[in-house]
Design a protein that fits this description.
The protein is 29% helix and 26% strand. By secondary structure, the protein is α+β, with helices and mostly antiparallel strands. It has a three-stranded antiparallel beta sheet with strand order 2-1-3. Strand 1 and strand 2 form a beta hairpin.
Amino acid sequence: MKKFTHGIMIINPNKPLENGNYEVVHFVGYWIEPTDVDVDSLRNELRTDPEFELQEIVDELEFLPATEGCLKYYNDQVEADNVFDDNINQN
């Protein structure tokens, strides 16, 4: 798997951290720029899948393009977990 080049970071604007930044409550990495359809699909998944524990607040969340720092953080996490593998389908 190649490193993510794009992503959607989801924050709760109602819960700023002490330093004024916001915690990323969910992240999805992509290899191409996500579309509005991708955002809508993700929003629906978070609204309906209890595994993410965001159902009750999904309408309060902001879905934003991932920053370079966010992409680096999650790419580093995936790399540390040895998930990058050329045999994984990226579709």
